[in-house]
Amino acid sequence: MDGWDAGVMILSEILFFVFGWLFFMKQLFKNYEVHNWVVQLLFSITFALSCTMFELIIFEIVNVMDSRSRYSSWRYTLSSMLFLLIVVLPIYVAYSLIRSIAFIRSRYVASLTTMFWLVFIYFFWKLGDPFPILSSKHGIFTIEQAISRIGVIGVTVMAVLSGFGAVNAPYCYMTVFMRKVDQNSINQMELKLNQTLGMIVAKKRRLAHYERELQRSAFSRGTNDNTGLFHRLWGTVSSVATGGTLSDQIGQLNDEIQPLEELSRHLFLALVELRNMKDRLDYSQTWMGQYFNVLGHFFSVYCIWKIFICTVNIVFDRVGKVDPVTKGIEIGVHWMGFELDVRFWSQHISFMLVGVIAVTSIRGLLITLTKFFLAISSTKSSNIIVLLLAQIMGMYFVSSVLLMRMNMPLEYRVIITEVLGDLQFNFYHRWFDVIFLISALSSILFLYLAHKQTPIH
Q1: Which long-range contacts (CB under 8 A, 24 or more apart) does 330-336 make?
Q2: How far apart are CA 194 and CA 189, in angstroms?
Q3: What percentage of residues in the chain have a pLDDT greater than 70?
Q4: How many Å apart are CA 445 and CA 442, to the nearest integer?
Q5: CA of 367: how far to CAs of 18, 262, 362, in Å?
Q6: At 423, phi and psi to the nearest 5?
Q7: How far apart (Å, rounded) are the C-alpha atoms in residues 146 and 421?
Q8: Where are the alpha helices (DSSP H) in 84-142?
Q9: Which part of the chain is the Abscisic acid G-protein coupled receptor-like domain (predicted)?
């Protein structure tokens, strides 16, 4: 690799690393004061290597750098990513998890960490047994053995996210799926909530009053020789006259307050849902809302087409031999009479397609990771969750390279195919179709049941 090519790769790695570091600080850990610099370093390195793989795919299409330099960059990037995903991240996840358990002594941490990593390696290796992912001629310690198993996990994650996204996007964007909510319904729900809260406040005031009375009562202090017989008898008579002992009334009030508090929580959540629906309806009337409505129709057509194509691919065991860009151009040339340079336009359109896929994949995964992290993280578990997300992110992007290879013309796949090795690429495309179909159909059923719930009144 000459100096110019090495400089390009080093500068790219630094920029991607800095972006990953800033994303970690400004998005994932913006609400936390304590940052583990090792976790931050591992996340940023994983992000930088993931982006570098997409960059190298674009370099293949645009023919940036010498072919030998690109091959060396591919080998370095993939080897580094595999070392992170199989060795470094699992070991540090196990180490962090064991260190967080208070009763484990420090001298046992190293041995337990090693044991956990060996268990991980065992199951990671056994993962490849049920799948026809590799030809038998490869040895145990080869890059193909690692990529083939990581590809199964990553493709599964990609297919699940893609299947849910293909269904959820039109459901969220299209106005036809939005429930009609007016301001009167919101006002009525607010009135019910305020009335319920008022009843709770009134009963809690009575409860506090009875508890103070109970503390001053003769019987709350037990039998006391200094208390006269007349005072104790008078307390008994007055309690019975007011409808039972103070303890009974306190118990009755607690029994009444508990269901009212449960009702208030239900009404509050219902009010929030109504307001969200109203905001969505108001937003749908704007220019951006109408744009997303049109986009939702496009996604619905894409979802139906993708489900149909996946079903056809599964039933007929079909995998495309030609990338979709070249296939589309050939259809335009042979069937519609267009006079186009297939090689020239396939290169430029493939460049734009791969660029769009790369940007949207990175953006979509980062948004998903942020939402997931903010939903389940805490000050104690945040570091472990970030490490697991980095593991998923690395597997996701390695699998993206496996699948994006099919979107590239044959002449641009040479180095990628050589670096990835003799994998059963057709298996990964069939596996993606199967998981995508299951995920999409399950998402349709789930959203249908959620949408058919009784509307809130």
Answers
A1: none
A2: 9
A3: 72
A4: 5
A5: 18, 33, 9
A6: -90, 160
A7: 11
A8: 89-99, 109-126
A9: 283-452
